[in-house]
Structure formats: structure tokens, C-alpha cells
Amino acid sequence: MKNLKVILVVIGLAFILNIFDIRFCPFFNIFNIPCPTCGLTRAFKLIMQFRLIESLRYNLLALPLVIFTFIYIILLITKRIDLLYSFLNKYKKVLIVITIIIMLKYGL
Asked: What is the pTM of this model?
């Protein structure tokens, strides 16, 4: 349950920073180009409004992250987190390749 609290705190802080339009991204502040996580908060807000296509325009990683977080929370609550770890271990290489492809696509 400690992991769930951390996730909720991070999400809450992200929304508060977004409300006050504070961009806390060292990568963006140094290089002045978006990092792979830029736009996630806006994309999350659009996902919560069921505007999925628009959310993909802000960040392609938002929808998979929401789905993964939802599954993680359900497995954590039902005490079946071992299913997630076995899945991640079994498909680790495939998931890494898919993530890299999405990040390259987002960056271009």
C-alpha cells in the first residue's frame, strides 16, 4: 500500500503544478526541448475527460501509463501483484522495445 500512496502523491503534485502552470522539468529548462514526459499531466487530464485521441497528441505514453497504473492498483489491492511481476519478467524485452519505439515516435 506504500507504493499506492507514493503514486497518489506524485499524481496530486503534478496536478497542483499544472493548475499554477509551473513547468518543473530540468530537461526542458536546460535544453528547451520537450522530454519524453512533457505533456503527461495535460494528457492525463484529457484521458480523465475521455478525450483519448487528444491526449495522444500531448504524449503517447499517457494512455499506456494510465492502463498500467490501473492494473497495478487492482493487483496491489487484490494482493496478486506477483502476476504483474511474472508478466514483466516474461515480456521484458518486448516491453522495452515497444517503449523505445513510442519514445522515438514521440520525440520526432
From this structure: 0.58
